[in-house]
């Protein structure tokens, strides 16, 4: 195991150690935002019949082929067809049928002329009236053909596609009410630290509330997983060993926070090494150099730092891609845009630095990013109030105002290409 690896190596290592979860069938509404695990096909042609795209008059295009404003062609309205109705009669010479949007096209008709451009010569435009047309129309005009959207047996959503809200409607129209998807990974979240108390308690001397578990559980939920916040673990090797061993046998992925460095009370690395296989311990990034990963009982176990911002950055950049891999998602990278810094950054650390920042668009149309004043790895507040992470490259070269840098958009879906 290398002493320190790059962020890219860390992501590849963790994503390569996980596999898709088993496939389950879920109801259509529960499938939105999830990945189809197999091809889905339609049971009918959609639409199953040719229908009108608007309110108008169904006719044979040839019957008004000579129509002009000077010499309009008059036709008699012999019937009306509403949505859901079917006209089984015959449209003869000099005849047409009034038709509503979505209604089934009569067999004899090959065009629809919209109501607004048809003049009523006699009557009210309904059955028994006479209407006139001042221009010809094309065969097929204002008609949506049968099978326009899908054919019976055709693949309508391919395996690997993310099902959108519109896709739910498409699948419903094609008779697909159950969707095979990869089961959401069950993620155990364990905060370590003898100083921690639940958020329900007012901290006493030397104590702080456990905020990390809630933030990491929220990150897991936003990644599509099912988080389970487990009890706080005190700072002893034995307590952490027992908690990780038990969680690794019950859950699909285990995330701990705290105890990832090399202090006297930092135990996640020796625990993972003792129970299973330790695969990494440090990553070339700031915040979040101390990132522990390994396998225990065949289950991925990730030890995040205890500092809130460091834990958050590590989760979003390394754990989230792995959880998405387990659910079959093909896009794993948050969208990135280039933006110019609005202030000087000294970049005194040789590691790759992720600054919490606010992205805006300047008057000249170029994105600008303003890093938050307080970049402490111990704070959640600056993350709440910013909308991106500005990336300063590896090395110690200063980055003056105006420098173009990458900005990671954490709240934009990975599928969005910018």
Automatic annotation (TrEMBL):
Its cofactor is Mg(2+). The keyword Nucleotide-binding does not apply. One of its GO terms (biological process) is Mo-molybdopterin cofactor biosynthetic process. Residues 188-325 form the MoaB/Mog domain. InterPro entries: MoaB/Mog-like_dom_sf, MoaB/Mog_dom, MoeA-like, MoeA_C_domain_IV, MoeA_C_domain_IV_sf, MoeA_linker/N, MoeA_linker/N_sf. GO terms for cellular component: cytosol. Its EC number is 2.10.1.1. One of its GO terms (molecular function) is metal ion binding. Pathway: Cofactor biosynthesis; molybdopterin biosynthesis. Keywords: Magnesium, Metal-binding, Molybdenum, Molybdenum cofactor biosynthesis, Transferase. CDD domains: MoeA (cd00887). NCBIfam families: Glp_gephyrin, molyb_syn. Belongs to the MoeA family. Catalyzes the insertion of molybdate into adenylated molybdopterin with the concomitant release of AMP. This is Molybdopterin molybdenumtransferase. It comes from Adlercreutzia mucosicola.
């Amino acid at each position: 195991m290398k002493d320190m690896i790059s962020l890219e190596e860390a992501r590849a290592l963790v994503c390569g150690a996980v596999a898709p979860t088993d496939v389950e069938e879920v109801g259509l509404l529960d499938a939105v935002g999830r990945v189809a695990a197999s091809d889905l096909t339609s049971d009918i042609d959609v639409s199953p019949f040719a229908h009108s795209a608007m309110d108008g008059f169904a006719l044979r295009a040839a019957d008004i082929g000579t129509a002009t404003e000077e010499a309009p062609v008059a036709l008699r309205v012999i019937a009306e067809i509403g949505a859901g109705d079917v006209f089984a009669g015959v449209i003869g010479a000099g005849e047409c049928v009034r038709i509503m949007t979505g209604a089934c096209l009569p067999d004899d008709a090959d065009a629809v002329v919209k109501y607004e451009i048809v003049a009523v010569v006699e009557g009210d435009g309904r059955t028994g009236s006479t209407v006139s047309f001042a221009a010809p129309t094309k065969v097929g005009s204002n008609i949506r053909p049968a099978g326009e959207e899908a054919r019976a047996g055709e693949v309508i959503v391919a395996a690997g596609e993310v099902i959108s809200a519109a896709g739910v409607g498409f699948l419903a129209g094609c008779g697909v009410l159950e969707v095979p998807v990869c089961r959401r990974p069950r993620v155990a979240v364990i905060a370590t630290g003898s100083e921690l108390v639940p958020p329900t308690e007012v901290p006493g001397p030397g104590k702080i509330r456990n905020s990390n578990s809630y933030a990491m559980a929220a990150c897991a939920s936003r990644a599509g997983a099912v988080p389970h916040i487990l009890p706080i673990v005190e700072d002893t090797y034995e307590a952490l060993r027992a908690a990780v061993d038990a969680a690794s046998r019950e859950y699909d992925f285990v995330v701990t926070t705290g105890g990832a460095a090399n202090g006297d009370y930092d135990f996640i690395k020796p625990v993972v090494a003792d129970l299973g296989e330790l695969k990494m311990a440090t990553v070339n990034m700031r915040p979040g150099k101390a990132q522990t990963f390994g396998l225990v009982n065949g289950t991925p176990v990730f030890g995040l730092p205890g500092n809130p911002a460091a834990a958050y950055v590590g989760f979003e950049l390394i754990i989230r891609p792995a959880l998405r891999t387990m659910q079959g998602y093909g896009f794993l990278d948050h969208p990135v845009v280039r933006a110019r810094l609005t202030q000087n950054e000294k970049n005194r650390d040789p590691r790759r630095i992720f600054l919490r920042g606010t992205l805006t668009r300047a008057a000249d149309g170029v994105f600008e990013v303003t890093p938050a004043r307080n970049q402490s790895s111990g704070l959640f507040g600056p993350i709440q109030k910013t909308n991106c992470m500005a990336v300063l490259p590896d090395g110690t070269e200063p980055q003056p105002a105006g420098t173009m840098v990458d900005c990671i958009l954490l709240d934009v879906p990975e599928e969005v290409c910018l």
